[in-house]
Amino acid sequence: MRRADRLFEIVQYLRGRRLTTARQLAEWLRVSERTIYRDVAALLAAGVPIDGEAGVGYRVRPGLDLPPLMFSFDEVEALAIGARFVESWGGAGLAQGARSSLAKIAAALPREKRAALESARLFVPGFFIDPLPGERLETLRHAIVQRRAVQFGYRDGANRASQRRVRPLGLYFWGHAWSLAAWCELREDFRNFRLDRMGEVTLLEPYADQAGKRLEDFVRRMQAED
Question: Which long-range contacts (CB under 8 A, 24 or more apart) does 75-82 make?
Answer without folding.
Answer: 76/109, 76/113, 76/116, 76/117, 76/120, 77/116, 77/120, 77/122, 79/105, 79/117, 80/117, 80/120, 80/122, 81/120, 81/122, 81/124
